[in-house]
Design brief:
Helix content is 24%, strand content 28%. The strands form seven sheets. An eight-stranded parallel β-sheet has the order 4-5-8-9-10-11-12-13. Strands 3-16-22-23-28-25-26 form a seven-stranded antiparallel β-sheet. The relative contact order is 0.15. The chain has two domains: 30-43 and 411-536, Golgi alpha-mannosidase II (Immunoglobulin-like), CATH 2.60.40.1180; 46-392, TIM Barrel, CATH 3.20.20.80. The protein has 537 residues and is an alpha/beta fold. The protein binds alpha-L-arabinofuranose. Residues 56, 99-101, 201-202, 243, 324, 375-376 line the site of alpha-L-arabinofuranose (AHR).
Length: 537
Amino acid sequence: MRKLNSAGTATFFAAAMVVAGFLFAGQLTAQNARIKIDIDRQIGEVNKNVYGNFVEHLGRCVYGGIYDEGSPLADEDGIRLDVLEAAKGLNVSLTRYPGGNFVSNYHWKDGVGPKDERPTRMELAWARLESNRFGTNEFIDFARRMGTEPYFAVNLGTGTIEEAQQWVEYCNVKEGPYYAELRKQHGYAEPHNITYWSLGNEMDGFWQMGHLNAEDYSKKAREAAKLMKLTSPEIKLVAAGSSNYRPNADPNEWNATILHELRDVVDYIALHIYVGNVADNYYNYLSTPLVLEERTQIVKGMILKEMAYAQRQSDDPIYIAWDEYNVWYRARVGEDMTGERALEEHYNLEDALVIAGFLNAFIRNADVVKMANMAQLVNVIAPIFTSETDMFKQTIYYPLALFANNAFGTALDVAVDCETYDTEEFFIGLAESKTTQEDVPFLDVSATYDDGQVVLCVVNRNKDKAITTDIIAQEGLFDGEYEVYEVNGPDSKAQNDFGKTLVETKSKPALRVKKADKMTYEFPPHSFTMIKGALKN
Ligand code: AHR
């Protein structure tokens, strides 16, 4: 790695040579950045569930988002067709529902049966009234139409373990017991067969209704898991890992305890992260995906230890589910936190680059990160934004769509040689602890390999300079045409809006390579680029 200072000033000798005119354009190869791709250096299979999303009863995510009864943009079931279409473009593998903090005061029975008979409740997490006109079966119908797998969270806050068991029975048992028959009465003869269930949400958070300490959570989660698995043995269970990274919290203590207590019960531990450019420092902010990567490595170590003690083999793993991640800091105070218009974050290009960084990090940790859910799908810290009459795709929509439609197969351990920078000490988000990052590479890279095709994903974090890069195949040859897609905009603060798209994916001229082990590409400033094509042995 070659170090620059945080303003991006070159300090290495070769750059000085260029400035002094010692090197000519044709000779620049010696100082190009390098990405080396070796198809034998494999990290693990990219699980399609890392391209998941999240629908919570919060603000306008459900009502006014995916579901808008009476809207001219909705069909007779109340589904907003413009939203459904945009959501399909994200190729969402699985969608978490119904919360979030909401779930800790949600009783699923309120949301089934004839709509006009459902109770309206006070919703305490986000201070609204919950009509319950959208519930389990409406979500399943929406999910099937969107082509996504449902992932349910049970209420371990104000809810009981019995209530959790009954929900599994309602959803997964074909016939016989009361709740399976109730589902049939509600018009669903076949079970919903929901595989993924999480055992509560953010139970370490003091803000969570029914918040518990790690020991008490483990006991409740273990007993809920027992009843749920006895009801539907094939389900996969997700433990609520720590989401509290405030300066005085101890997230590692929570994670260590619950993994120890639940190591023979759960299949995943859920982690959450929200970052933001709180101090308006672009370079600090662009390094935040490295924090997710550090936390992944810490929890991976805990998982390995507990799996060894529990004598769980690699065919019966515990994985990490980053089942909430996003940028969230603007709409995180005061009035923006509650009511009908809560958490309506408006994203810009730098946010999209951070999202691309998170997705790169999921791929670089594909051996242990097997699920991730952008929080959330519509309006609430979301890639899709609606009004009563219109819809637009936020900047963060575009990198997610590119990854979710292209980056599959085996994650490769690429070697990257480029300039780096150090950050100052900074808060990574509004409710997050401080960090300092050293040697942040200007090029943030991941690669996947599938059936002779390589997909290279590159964020150029440099705000001002393009980075000319040699992409080198260490095994096999590049040969043919390479599709190139770029997410970029006029500047790092560029935003989209209704009727205005400044940041989107653009197809760039294809690269043409004839049986070569190297191709060269210039990654533009503040950009995300995906390059896709053959790598033949
Ligand atoms: O996604 C918004 C909120 O963030 C979720 O409800 C909660 O789980 C997290 O704190």
